[in-house]
Design a protein that fits this description.
alpha+beta, six-stranded antiparallel beta sheet, two-stranded antiparallel sheet, 10 helices, 8 strands, 18% strand
Length: 265
Amino acid sequence: MANSSSPSVIGRVMVILNLFREHKPWITIEDVATALEVSAPSAYRYAGELTQAGLLLRTSGRYRLGPKIIELEYLIRSYDPIIQAAHNLLYGLAELTECDVLLCNVYDQTIVNVFHVPGKHPVNLTYTKGLPMPLFRGSQAHVILAHMERRKLKRIYDAAMADPALAADARAIGSDWAAFSKELKRIRNSGYYISRGELDKDVTGVAAPVFDEKGEIVGSLVLSLNIKASPPISEEMLIGMVIQTANEITKRIEQMAVEPTLPSP
């Protein structure tokens, strides 16, 4: 039986769903019982409830993600307001620059690549669509951190300093809080950030911030290209196009907040 420190119902659901990974499409009752620290009968009950809800599907005694997940992914892909605001602009930017174009959204402290348009010469990216991305590495992370509310940013920084898995990445931005915040202020004033090999050794990323109608950071627009490749236009022009497109996405998000009718995907 779970003890008093057991997670809430929603917490248990997330523990189970988080068992799925890129190379782990199936889970077992033993996986559920171990993750939740509960008995096998309790694990069966939790898995059964998630199966009834459509979040899991039972096949030959194992479980995979269920049809409700597919439905939710469709709704996000087709009707998420940020994706809708950016959709045709991403394709246009990829065509003009011949580079890969990514839209990376931030959900509290998690950055996810939610839309990816390959360029004329696609690059090999580790963090493909749907995978959480590092919070302190890469162009997408730097511009998002640079526009976070200062108190929230300080909490994130302090937590990173206490986490051996994140501390080195945070220190790479700044050796202490003063240096960290100074560098992010510089990025904020610049309006963009260029990373070279921070996520993938052969990839350059150029990113600019995207905001909602209240001026809060919701993500970043990223142009990705091979470090050794020669883009059809200068780096200065690439920067200008990324900033301009990100600004246009922000304007569209603002307009959609006033006129919430969404365009067709």
